[in-house]
C-alpha cells in the first residue's frame, strides 16, 4: 500500500514539474542567456532529471539495504530477507539505464538550443554531445547503471552488492557535478558538497523504499526490530548530510534575496524543509517513538519517503537552472579554472597557509582515522594489545592524505603540474604504504571479535566474504595489481584523459581516489600484513617491488624529457605569472616523481628484508608479521576459506 501511494506521488510530482517547466518555458533560458530549445525539450530536461534521479536512488538504496540488512550464508549468498530488495535493484537499474540513454539527446538539445527531433533529424546529435557536458555526463550515468545491472543480474553474492555501490554512486553524481557545482567561485567546495548531497539524497530515498518493501512475514517481529535498528541510524546520517549540504548550497548559489525571489531559491527552501521533516521522522523511528504520534514506523517512513521525493523534485529544479548567485557574479579566470585565487607562487609559508580542502577525500580520511581509533580503543578495553607502530603508521598515512588534499599542496597542485606530482606521490605511494602497514583489516577482524552475541560473528563473516570475494582475488593478483599501479600512470598522463580531468574538481577527486586505490592494492600485495586471497613468499614480493621500479623511473624520465607538455591547454589558459616555462615545470614534476618514488620503495625493501631475516632466524615481528596475538584469528580466517 505504501509503495503504491508513493508511486502515485511520483506521478503527481512529475506532472507538477512538467507544468512548472512549461509555464516558465523560455524565461529561464533568457535569464541565463542560453538558446531556447523549445517547450518539449525544456520540459523533458527537468522531468527526465527527476525521474532518473528517483530510479537511481531506488537502485542505490536497495543496494545499501542489502549491504546493511543481509545475513549472508556460508558461501556468501544473500538471504531471503533481502532477496526482494536485491532483485528490485536489478529491475530498477534497467529503467535507470533506459532513461539515462534517453536523456543524452535531451541534454544535447538543451545545450545547443535545438529541439530533440531537429537535433537527431538533421544529424547534429554527435556534435551536440561533443559540446554538451551534461550529455556526456548522462552517458557516464547510463554506463554506471549498466555496470550495476550486469553485476546484480548475474550474481547473488553479498560482496557483489558491496562492489556495486561504487558504480551506483558514480552514476548518481555524474550529472550534478557538471552543472552549477562546476561553475564559479569556490566550485572546488561546491563540487564536494554536491557529491555528498546527491549520494545521500538518493541513498536515503531508496533505502526507505527498500525497507518499506521488506518481507515482514519472513523476518518476524524480532528480526524486524533488528533490521530497523540497522536502517534507522543510516537514514539519520544520510538525511543529516542532505540537510547540511542543502543549507551550504543555498548560501553559495542563492544568497540574500535570491532565496525568495527566484525559482531556484524557492526550490532550495523546499528541499531544506522537506529534508528536515524526513530527518525528524528518522529520529522518531530510530528512538522507537512513532506510537507517540499515533503512527507506525512504516507510516512515518512512508511520509519521509514522500518528503524525499519532494526533495529530489526540488533538486531537479535547482540542477536544471543556472544558480542565481552565479548569474550575478562577475567571473574572473580564477573562478573559471580554479574557483579560488592564488596571489603568489608556492613557498613553504604559502603551502602551510593557503589551504583548499578536498571535502570528499579529507572527509573519507577523517572517517577512516576515526574508525581505526575506535577499533584500537575497543581492543584495549577488551584487554588486547595492539602494536603502537601500526597505529602510528596509520596516523601518518592519514596525515599524508590530508596534507596532499587539504594544504597548499592541493591548492597549488590544481594549478601547477610540478606541485601536482608531489600530490600524486603522496596519495599514490607514501600514504598507501603507511596505511597498509597499519593493518586495518586485521584490526577490524580483531575488533569485531570483541563484540557480543551474534553481531560479532556476523561482522566477521561479512569481512571474510569481502576478503574471499572474486573481485578482491582479481585485483590483488600480483600481475593485475602491478599492471594497475604502473599502467595507470601512462594511461592518465600520456593520453588526452589528463587534459579532461585536470579542468574539473571532480576530475582531481577521481584521480586522487583512483591512484590511492591502485597504490593501496599494490602495497597490500607487496607488504602482505593483512589477510588476503593469497600471500606471496617474501622473495616473490621483493621481486614484485623490483619489477615496479623501472616503470616508475621510466615515467619520471619520460616527463623530464618529453617535448609534449602534459595538460598544456589548461595550464596555458590559466597562465600563472610565476610559471613562465611550462616545460621546465613539467621537468620539475618528473624530478619529484623520480626521486620521491624512491622513498616508499626503500621503506618497503627494508620491511621485506627484515621480515625475510626474521623468517630465516625464527624471530616474530609485531609490525611486519601478523603472528603473535593474531595467530588464532588468521587460522580461523584460513579455515573459513576451506
TrEMBL record:
InterPro entries: Caa3_assmbl_CtaG-rel. It comes from the Bacteria. It holds the Pfam family Caa3_CtaG. One of its GO terms (cellular component) is plasma membrane. It is a multi-pass membrane protein. It is found in: Cell membrane. Keywords: Cell membrane, Membrane, Transmembrane, Transmembrane helix. The chain crosses the membrane at residues 50-68, 88-108, 135-154, 161-183, 189-211, 231-253, 265-286, 298-318, 359-379, 391-413, 425-449, 470-494, 506-530, 542-567, 587-613. This is Cytochrome c oxidase assembly protein. It comes from Gordonia aquimaris.
